[in-house]
Amino acid sequence: MSEPIRVAVLGAAGRMGSTVVRAVQAAPDLELVAQVDAGGDPRAVADAGAQVAVDFTVPAVTEGNVHALVDAGVHAVVGTTGWTEQSLGRVRDRLGGAPGVGVVVAPNFALGAVLAMAFARQAARWFESAEVVELHHPDKVDAPSGTARHTAQGIAQARAAAGLGPMPDATTQAADGARGADVDGVRVHAVRLRGLVAHEEVLLGNPGEMLTIRHDSFDRVSFMPGVLLAVRQVLHRPGLTVGLEPLLDLGA
Ligand SMILES: NC(=O)C1=CN([C@@H]2O[C@H](COP(=O)(O)OP(=O)(O)OC[C@H]3O[C@@H](n4cnc5c(N)ncnc54)[C@H](OP(=O)(O)O)[C@@H]3O)[C@@H](O)[C@H]2O)C=CC1
Ligand SMILES: O=C(O)C1=N[C@H](C(=O)O)C[C@H](O)C1
């Protein structure tokens, strides 16, 4: 058997980070060599000889972490949310100076969630209306979720490619937030409720019918197959990959 892949985890004490630590420790082809949390020294990642670092921290620090990893020649698998076209562009630029280094940034590593997004994108051009409802635990700091943003962007791109215009909506009077957030013309609604983990519904409507695409993560173990897949593949994917779709052969 070949040498195990040396893996570090950033945000190791968090809800996701601690789950990733256990998943890496349980995988025979991976070796956990460093764990860093808030207040820890990120240089520990390179010092420990990590080949891949997994980042599940907080939106405010993740971009800086990725730049430091790229500069150190460490591949990165990033699940933290809060990425924008601008911050992704800065990572692309940084990678220009680090040939061979790979970064995978994915808003959701649950295979079912990635498939749900792909199905929503596929269905979008056939419906007049589409809205996204995401439902999460109340300890989540960002809204709408990265997954919901990615879903809405996919729907918007599919609608634009099909030549569809704005969705029907006669609302002229609404209380603040009543119609949710506008993500590229798609309305996104965020629910925060104790007991939930991570859930999403895509509602697609036509006269006389509605298609609902729903995904539920009941436990954070649901994200682990996607995280481990990315850890194994990022070594062979130089440059920036956004979303898990290309790793699952589902297109961009
Ligand atoms: N892509 C995906 O599939 C998924 C993505 N997520 C995303 O992952 C992120 C983390 O979620 P979750 O685990 O629930 O959040 P948590 O708050 O439980 O975990 C974040 C951890 O990062 C730590 N941290 C803060 N700053 C740093 C730093 N500079 N260096 C290292 N660690 C740091 C925090 O420490 P402290 O608490 O002491 O500040 C905390 O332990 C969120 O953005 C969430 O949306 C979540 C689930 C799945
Ligand atoms: O914070 C979470 O919990 C999650 N965050 C990600 C997101 O914002 O989309 C992924 C998943 O929904 C869980």
Automatic annotation (TrEMBL):
Full protein name: 4-hydroxy-tetrahydrodipicolinate reductase
UniProt keyword annotations, A-Z: Amino-acid biosynthesis, Cytoplasm, Diaminopimelate biosynthesis, Lysine biosynthesis, NAD, NADP, Oxidoreductase
Subunit structure: Homotetramer.
Pathway(s) the chain acts in: Amino-acid biosynthesis; L-lysine biosynthesis via DAP pathway; (S)-tetrahydrodipicolinate from L-aspartate: step 4/4
Organism: Cellulomonas oligotrophica
Subcellular location, record wording: Cytoplasm
Catalysed reactions, semicolon-separated: (S)-2,3,4,5-tetrahydrodipicolinate + NAD(+) + H2O = (2S,4S)-4-hydroxy-2,3,4,5-tetrahydrodipicolinate + NADH + H(+); (S)-2,3,4,5-tetrahydrodipicolinate + NADP(+) + H2O = (2S,4S)-4-hydroxy-2,3,4,5-tetrahydrodipicolinate + NADPH + H(+)
Active-site residues per Swiss-Prot or TrEMBL entry: 136, 140
Database matches in PANTHER family: 4-HYDROXY-TETRAHYDRODIPICOLINATE REDUCTASE 1, CHLOROPLASTIC-RELATED, DIHYDRODIPICOLINATE REDUCTASE
A Pfam family assignment: DapB_N
Keyword GTP-binding appears in the UniProt entry: no
A GO-annotated cellular component: cytosol
UniProt superkingdom: Bacteria
InterPro entries: DapB_C (IPR022663), DapB_N (IPR000846), DapB_N_CS (IPR022664), DHDPR_bac (IPR023940), NAD(P)-bd_dom_sf (IPR036291)
Enzyme Commission number(s) from the entry: 1.17.1.8
Chain residues that bind NAD(+): 11-16, 79-81, 106-109
Main location: cytoplasm
Residues engaged in binding (S)-2,3,4,5-tetrahydrodipicolinate: 137, 146-147
